[in-house]
Amino acid sequence: MTARLESMSYTSRDGATTIPSYLASPNGDGPHPAVLILRGVAGPDDGYTEIACRLAEWGYVTLLHGWKVRGTDPPDAPVYD
Predict the structure, then answer these.
(1) Global pTM?
(2) 3 state SS for the chain
(3) Alpha-carbon span 28 to 17, nearest angstrom
(4) Which of 16, 45, 62, 79 is placed for a possible disulfide with 55 were both Cys, Cβ 3.0 to 4.6 Å?
(5) pLDDT (tens digit, 9 = 90+) per residue, 53-66?
(6) For residue 13, what are the contacts with CB-CB under 8 A and spacing of at least 6?
(7) What is the helix (H) or strand (E) element at residue 20, kind and residue range?
(8) Which residues lie closer than 8 Å to 32 by C-beta, 6 or more apart?
(9) What value does the CA radius of gyration of the chain take, rounded to a whole number of Å?
């Protein structure tokens, strides 16, 4: 089974944040089970897109969340115990 990979983005309801993502889909009619990949900040994108495509080849619709989105609030002050 082959997979389709498309780049997409989701915008928050208030329009303040756009999240880049990838959607990997199996070819053929569904329904298909879904997987959401929330990755960390380390490592190349290629490894995760490869995982998303492999899952799609196995019949799963896979959404890979873009990792480069960060909040704008400053970090909390450290707490020393």
Answers:
(1) 0.70
(2) CCEEEEEEEEECCCCCCEEEEEEEEECCCCCCCEEEECCCCCCCHHHHHHHHHHHHHCCCEEEEECCCCCCCCCCCCCCCC
(3) 33
(4) 62
(5) 999 999 999 998 87
(6) none
(7) strand 18-26
(8) 25, 26, 59, 60, 61
(9) 16
